[in-house]
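Bit of a strange request maybe. I'm writing a small parser for structure token strings and I need a real example to test against, not something I typed by hand. Could someone generate the tokens for this chain?
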Amino acid sequence: MPKLAQVATARQAQLKDGRRLGFAEFGDPSGKPVFLFHDLWGNRTLRHPDDSILTRLGIRLIGVDRPGYGMSTRKPGRGMMDVVDDVMLLSKALQLERFSVLGYSAGGPYALACAYRFPEIVRSCAVVSSLPPMDNPLGFQAVHPYYAKMLQLAGGMEPFFRWLLRGFFLLDSQRDSAQYLRELAASLPRVDQEVFGNLDFFSLRRDMWEEIRSNGSEAIADEMVSLVKAWHFHLQSIRIQVDIWWGESDRFSSPVVGQRMAAMIPNARLRLEASAGHLILFTHWQAILEALIAA
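Reply from user aminoacidic:
Good idea to test on real output. This should exercise your parser:
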């Protein structure tokens, strides 16, 4: 498998409020622009390890660090639409008239928010293994019990939750960063374990985790607090086409979430894949992108 391309295009954009927004570009510089919203434990570099897929499809992938992640300045108290507005400002700075959005896991709600807020600019949208709205008890029932409990604490006992997360980061700092990934992989279904068996993928996730760990726990805490807030829009109000991708073996976000989303979004196309788990973004990367840019 081809090696990861060098991240020579990682940059920061200066925002009007003085914050900096970190982002990185991959693939074809003159290709169809796609903004990727990373997962909870990700950053601007999230993608399939084989960058030649992007070049072959003619895609200009733009990964953006949410506030506090990676190269982006933290914004305490930020909400979902703050992130969407940041991306829109970045698109103007890059002189993009239209673009597509792709949201993975915890990044899914942001992609949907972007599709809702800017239907004349967002060409198409895809969400993969997305988190559901967490202001409804059904949302907590549909995600992994560990994350459901953490999200409940983030929404109802925020000071304690932040203290707990700081403790986790302190303990984690005392072990090798690869150990966390090996423990995570061991808890996943076989199809996801096979993805972790790819050394390029493992290295990419390790590098992302090391950056998150070096920045401290506040970005993750801000993210989880933001995710339990109301989305301030209805899925029924999304006007553009949305592709919804799910692996039937997903242990982090139940396929039921995808089915509910597909029933509520007027122009939704649901793809439930029997041979995939939560890491369907990587096992079905090319198919997801092909459908996104064909819309």
